[in-house]
Write a structure and sequence with these properties.
- There is one protein chain.
- The two termini are about 20 Å apart.
- With about 475 residues, the protein is mainly α.
- The strands form four sheets. The chain has a two-stranded antiparallel sheet with strand order 1-6. Strands 2-3 form a two-stranded antiparallel ribbon.
- It folds into three domains: about 80 residues, Multidrug efflux transporter AcrB TolC docking domain, DN and DC subdomains, CATH 3.30.2090.10; about 250 residues, Multidrug efflux transporter AcrB transmembrane domain (Multidrug efflux transporter AcrB transmembrane fold), CATH 1.20.1640; about 45 residues.
- The protein is about 60% helix and about 10% strand.
- The protein contains 18 helices and eight strands.
Length: about 475
């Protein structure tokens, strides 16, 4: 930075106006176009350089000419190199600091950007003095990682709760199949987003959490119908095949109605539309994946559930046993013989213990597979007739059931529904009246409409403007 100090006494003695001096300086530091020259073979532009390149160019600028006498900037001013006055002050923990703010480009991954920044700073700081302390603030990737962790926790909680609910209502087989459909649909949606070049942002994560409760509907319907056919004595292949065919159109219709409700968000104009378009796109990918899981993956896996579960248990438990045996052998070798054992002896010991662990794990896996087979057989209903078989007609398989013989919550529901169906006009009028009253109450007692709800801020920024020299 170059500072030009004007001497008022010299300006007055030479009769130079300060405004004239400043105008002369600004006019001199320019690139002047001087036309073009045509050589017959072509033309090229001519420019007269008038740029200031060093301090001497400033000092030698003529200000006023009187005969043979020339007054320059050197006679009226003093020019020197200096630093610009500070207009901001950075302090960290009360100590003077130099702050550097880094912003990511649009479309780049904030987690990867911050990791690269940290790696670059650590690499470059090796040549800095030891007295320089480096700290990072306003790291937005921490919040993104926290939201990703919350998403994972929500997905795991959804899987466990759905498994518990479905196992309690249907069977272990149905619970496992529905639980597998949740991460399968979410991972497929994330792959679709990656193929479209979209990033995983706040709206995408919200849409994934929102979709967790909707994507299990198709799988539950298919497994419930298949479980009913299994209790009627049908083999798994036939039961799940019939369930997929029978429930295909209802599941497709219910999925389409959900997607149509979010379709208008795709045509939301402006910046808000660009922000909210991720919600319907994510839901379309997730629900389409759940539809494929319900109609393709779940029936195939359910029809071969016994075989798949047996192989999964055998491979998984045997692998765990081998790893545990190798770890135990390595620990025993390190504890008993310390560091005097050669590499070959250590390798043989680890292999022997690993083989023993694999054998033990295989034996346990066989027992667990047998237990799983018995549970699956009990779910299928081969050990006896269920209540549904007793209520069904022996001569006709049209699934006719005597509603008067039902008990429990189902009987209460049937009685209430039967009473409501006798008064259709009253029920429709009550529903319409409830809708109107809800609108009126919200108009009178509602708190209004806002784009984003008020939330407590995570951080605060204070700007202090001082007068004079900071």
């Amino acid at each position: 930075f170059i500072e030009i100090a004007i001497e008022p006494q010299l300006l007055e003695s030479y009769g130079v106006d300060p405004a004239t001096l400043l105008s002369l300086f600004s006019r001199s530091n320019q690139m002047v176009a001087a036309g073009a020259i045509d050589s017959g073979k072509g033309s090229f532009a001519i420019k007269v350089p008038g740029l200031i390149e060093d301090i001497d160019d400033i000092l030698d600028l003529p200000v006023k000419v009187d005969g043979n006498a020339t007054i320059t900037f050197r006679d009226l001013t003093s020019v020197r190199r200096t630093f610009r006055d500070r207009n901001t002050v950075a302090r960290v923990n009360g100590q003077t600091a130099v702050s550097l703010e880094v912003s990511k480009r649009i479309g780049s991954n904030i987690i990867e950007v911050i990791e690269q920044i940290r790696e670059t700073v650590i690499t470059k700081s090796s040549a800095w003095p030891e007295a320089v302390n480096i700290s990072f603030s306003q790291d937005r990737s921490v919040r993104v990682r926290t939201m990703l962790a919350e998403l994972q926790n929500n997905v795991l909680s959804a899987v466990l709760l759905v498994m518990i609910a479905v196992v309690g209502a249907l069977s272990l087989r149905a619970g496992v199949l529905v639980a597998i459909a949740i991460p399968g649909s979410l991972l497929t949606a994330i792959l679709a987003l990656n193929a479209l070049g979209l990033t995983v942002n706040i709206v995408v994560m919200f849409a994934l959490i929102l979709a967790v409760g909707m994507l299990v509907d198709g799988a539950i319907v298919v497994t419930e119908y298949a479980d009913r056919k299994l209790r009627e004595g049908e083999p798994p292949e036939t039961a799940y095949g019939v369930a997929a065919k029978r429930m295909a159109w209802p599941i497709i219709a219910s999925t389409l109605t959900t997607l149509v409700a979010f379709a208008p968000l795709l045509f939301w104009p402006g910046m808000v539309g660009e922000f909210m378009k991720f919600l319907p796109i994510t839901l379309v990918g997730t629900l389409a994946a759940s539809l494929a899981m319900a109609l393709l993956f779940v029936p195939v896996l359910g029809a071969n559930f016994v075989i798949v579960s047996r192989y999964f248990i055998l491979i998984g438990v045997t692998t765990i046993g081998a790893i545990a045996g190798a770890a135990i052998g390595n620990e025993i070798l390190a504890t008993v013989f310390s560091k005097n054992t050669g590499a070959a002896a250590r390798l043989i010991t680890v292999l022997l213990f690993g083989a023993g662990g694999a054998i033990g794990g295989g034996w346990i896996a066989l027992r667990l597979a047998a237990i799983a087979d018995r549970l699956a057989s009990r779910d299928v209903g081969k050990t006896g007739e269920s209540a549904a078989i007793k209520l069904a007609s022996e001569s006709d398989k049209n699934e006719c059931v005597d509603l008067a013989s039902l008990t429990g919550i189902t009987a209460v529901y049937v009685r209430v529904l039967r009473g409501l169906l006798r008064q259709p006009a009253v029920i429709l009028s009550a529903a319409f009246a409830t809708l109107i009253v809800s609108w009126l109450l919200y108009g009178a007692l509602g708190k209004g409409v806002e784009f984003f709800p008020a939330v407590e801020p995570k951080q605060a920024a204070v700007q202090i403007h001082a007068r004079g020299n900071l």
